[in-house]
Amino acid sequence: MPESLTIQSYKGPYEVHFDAALRSHAGQLLAGETHALVDAKVARLYSEALAPILSLPTTILIDATEENKSIERIIPVIERLVENKIRRDHVLLAIGGGIIQDITCFIASTLMRGVTWHFVPTTLLAQADSCIGSKSSVNLGATKNILGTFNPPAKIVIDAGLLDTLDPVDVRSGIGEIIKVHAIDGAESFDRLAAEFDQLTTDRAVLARFIRSALLIKQRYIEIDEWDRGVRNIFNYGHSFGHAIEAATGFGVPHGIAVTMGMAMANHIAVQRGLTSEENRRRMLPVLRKNFAEFGSFPIANDDLLGALMKDKKNTSTRLVVILPTGEEARIERVQVPPDEIFRAQCATALEALAA
Question: pTM (2 decimals)?
Answer without folding.
Answer: 0.92
